Amino acid sequence: MSDARPPLPPFTFETATQKARLAEDAWNSRDPARVALAYTEASQWRNRSEFFSGREAIEQFLTRKWQKEHAYRLIKELWGFHENRIAVRFQYEYHDAAGQWFRAYGNEQWEFDALGLMQRREASINDVAIAESERKFHWPLGPRPAEHPGLTELGM
């Protein structure tokens, strides 16, 4: 069990919430290698209109993503769970190379193996251009501080 990524399924409300926050913290690191370790070697992904599998492809995808999405800050919120599956909704803010800010709105469905590694991820995401004054995620780059409100508390 040395490769285990607790919490492990079957999930409870508390462990599913913890799993979502751990994923949020990892993605906010913007470290593709770190994030990819949470997935199985053959993890199946759908991200928007891209379909791919495996840790190497995940790491390559995330490297490309964070080369284009600057000052990335993400909040994930548990939407539902059952046994080895979790659904989350999320929003993130970033700007492109020209300085245009965006807020991305999305949802993900996750399926985990017995070791707590994600074996399937399906994400639907929409980007909306926003003015810099409309930003809501202002913490320093990295994990969202524990005292920073989540999506529901922000009225999002």
UniProtKB/TrEMBL annotation:
Name this protein carries in UniProt: Nuclear transport factor 2 family protein
Ranked from the top, the taxonomy reads: Bacteria, Pseudomonadati, Bacteroidota, Cytophagia, Cytophagales
* Origin superkingdom: Bacteria
By its UniProt entry, which Pfam families does this protein fall under? DUF1348
